[in-house]
């Protein structure tokens, strides 16, 4: 069966991208990268990318050392 959304494929290899704002995106391996984004992890199975994101992603309020209350 053909997948319309690449993320519907459980066997998908992904990579984690980052932009200048230190935002992250999960991206299918082998797809052209969007302008302004660079790979920081992968390609690896989706579960490995999810794990990497869980370890490295920060709340936007924590970036730059500022904590909002």
TrEMBL record:
Residues 5-55 form the MbtH-like domain. SMART domains: MbtH (SM00923). It comes from the Bacteria. One of its GO terms (biological process) is siderophore biosynthetic process. GO terms for cellular component: cytosol. Signal peptide: none annotated. Pfam families: MbtH. This is MbtH-like domain-containing protein. It comes from Duffyella gerundensis.
């Amino acid at each position: 069966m053909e997948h319309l959304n690449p993320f519907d494929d459980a066997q998908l290899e992904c990579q984690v991208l980052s932009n200048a704002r230190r935002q992250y995106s999960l991206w299918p391996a082998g797809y052209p990268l969007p302008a302004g984004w660079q790979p920081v992890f992968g390609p690896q199975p989706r579960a490995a990318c999810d794990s990497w994101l869980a370890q490295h992603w920060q709340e936007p309020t924590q970036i730059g050392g500022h904590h909002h209350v």
